[in-house]
Amino acid sequence: MLTDAVMFAFGGSHLELGEHMLGKEYFPNNNLQMKGDLQRALVNYYDFMVGYQNLLRDGGTFNTESVDISCTNGRMDVAAWPPQTGKVASVGKLVDNKQVIHLINLSVANSFDWRDLNGNQPEPTMIEDAGMKFRTDRTVKRIWVASPDLNGGVPQEISFNQNAVSTSFKMPGLKYWGMIVIEY
């Protein structure tokens, strides 16, 4: 799931589904078997990628280095991409009048390898009600979040408070991947 979260957040995709999980470069190969919950989760991720393709894959400019987002209540430790051990990675992208911020939960990851050959990557712990602060001097009109891990990917509008230099809001939940959209 983390591999898909990273690829999709950066606007990419990959071939992994067929009759079986495609885990080797030569097909067919059925050395990896997916359980039902993983199959359903992957369908949710691909549905999410298609549903939000205008934000994920349709232009925009990555601006991770200029995105200043932090957690104010200790629920998560956020650091800009590239990933760091024990942290939630943030990836920023400006698309028209929207600042998109992807949060990828690597807080318990034991490896940043793209393949989990032994199937021992721990499942991230759900992070709930994280107080977030995003530094911006632009007037924010609306904030919403969406995740393939929550609510079937349906966007959820978030209330926020803004002052001259930052905007504060609560991130309702983060499992593997969440997308915050700040509209100006």
Supply the key terms.
single chain; 184 residues; alpha+beta; Immunoglobulin-like; seven-stranded mixed beta sheet; four-stranded antiparallel beta sheet; 3 helices; globular; Glyco_hydro_66; Dextranase
Layout: helices, strands, pairs:
Elements (H helix, E strand, L loop, with lengths): L1 H8 L26 H16 L1 H4 L4 E2 L6 E3 L6 E3 L7 E8 L2 E8 L21 E9 L6 E5 L9 E3 L1 E3 L3 E9 L2 E7 L1
Parallel strand pairs: 3-4
Antiparallel strand pairs: 1-4, 2-6, 4-5, 5-11, 6-10, 7-8, 7-11, 9-10
Short structural summary:
This protein is an alpha+beta fold and 184 residues long. The chain has helices at residues 2-9, 36-51, 53-56; strands at 61-62, 69-71, 78-80, 88-95, 98-105, 127-135, 142-146, 156-158, 160-162, 166-174, 177-183. 15% of the residues lie in helices and 33% in strands.
Can you describe what's shown?
This protein is α+β, with helices and mostly antiparallel strands and 184 residues long. The chain has a single domain, classed as Golgi alpha-mannosidase II (Immunoglobulin-like, Sandwich), CATH 2.60.40. Helix content is 15%, strand content 33%. It contains three helices and eleven strands, in the order αααβββββββββββ. The strands form two sheets. Strands 1, 3, 4, 5, 7, 8 and 11 form a seven-stranded mixed beta sheet that branches. β4 and β5 form a beta hairpin. InterPro entries: Glyco_hydro_66, Glyco_hydro_b. Keywords: Signal. This is Dextranase. It comes from Geofilum rubicundum JCM 15548.
